[in-house]
Amino acid sequence: MASDISNIVILTGAGISAESGLATFRGPEGLWEGHRVEDVATPEAFSRDPALVQRFYDARRANLATVEPNAAHEALARLDAGWDGELLIVTQNVDDLHERAGANRVLHMHGELNSAWCLECDTRTASPAALLEEPSCPECGEAALRPDIVWFGEMPYGMDAIEQALMDADLFVSIGTSGAVYPAAGFVQTARYRGARTLELNLDPSQGSIFFDESRMGPASELVPAWVD
Ligand code: BV8
């Protein structure tokens, strides 16, 4: 890493978890695990058919327990452990693979599969394996738990911390994201505007590739260790 780099922001998307076996967001015909996004990842979908949405997230939560972090998650964990400067891994992913690889400085801007949110008392709690069967809040007892996931039209978590990190960044690295979802897709422009160097590590060109000083194409399990080590 260049010696004038002190503060790093890393944005990860579904592509970093693809080689662990987790589906990326845009499959064939725009279906995601067989569902259209608007049918499972919006507050309207949850109001319309809560059981469908709970089943969708229960299935992903169950699948997450069967997969492992890959070499890309492990390389970022090594970087996190050994980096003396500022470092923030902002992930759009709702899986826990960064943490299971050993990373600590992780911010889940779109929430987490393993967290549940009580609509009655606003408590966030560790999610039961299957919310459809166990919707009762351990705090207030009401059957009011929903997945603690940021759906479309909802405000992502940690935006103040993310904005501050982008203002201070010397280097912004985007890994495994299509650059299709905002506000995450705009982070590279903020970092660039503030003078950070920008690097993209992705399997394919993304919607934001034009904003990066450098784009390296290939699988994250190869590109990320090569960059970190
Ligand atoms: C908000 C949780 C405001 C769900 C997710 C028009 C213009 C601009 C914005 C909007 C607009 N219309 C609506 C909006 C806003 C909207 C948005 O951006 N829509 C898009 C579709 C246009 N955004 C929102 O609603 C956000 N909220 O704006 O709030 C607000 C303000 C005030 C008050 C209230 C609200 C909230 C967005 C969050 C939605 N939730 N996730 C869940 O996960 O269950 S987003 C969802 O997309 C996933 O989290 C996913 O991570 C994320 C982004 O997708 P990617 O991670 O990039 O995944 P994708 O499959 O697309 O790409 C994978 C990439 O990996 C590919 O490039 C591929 O090449 C690469 N890859 C594959 N394999 C590998 C690889 N790379 C390396 N190695 C490999 N092996």
From TrEMBL:
Catalytic activity: N(6)-acetyl-L-lysyl-[protein] + NAD(+) + H2O = 2''-O-acetyl-ADP-D-ribose + nicotinamide + L-lysyl-[protein]; N(6)-succinyl-L-lysyl-[protein] + NAD(+) + H2O = 2''-O-succinyl-ADP-D-ribose + nicotinamide + L-lysyl-[protein]
Principal subcellular localization: cytoplasm
Cofactor note: Binds 1 zinc ion per subunit.
Record-annotated Deacetylase sirtuin-type domain positions: 1-229
Keyword rRNA-binding: no
Domain of life of the source: Bacteria
Cross-referenced InterPro entries: NAD-dep_sirtuin_deacylases, Sirtuin, Sirtuin_class_III, Ssirtuin_cat_dom
PROSITE patterns: SIRTUIN (PS50305)
Binding-site residues, Zn(2+): C118, C121, C137, C140
Alphabetical UniProt keywords: Cytoplasm, Metal-binding, NAD, Zinc
Bilayer-crossing regions: none
Family statement drawn from the similarity comment of this UniProt entry: Belongs to the sirtuin family. Class III subfamily.
HAMAP family xrefs: Sirtuin_ClassIII
Domain observations: 2 residues (Tyr-57 and Arg-60) present in a large hydrophobic pocket are probably involved in substrate specificity. They are important for desuccinylation activity, but dispensable for deacetylation activity.
UniProt protein name: NAD-dependent protein deacylase
Source organism: Sphingomicrobium clamense
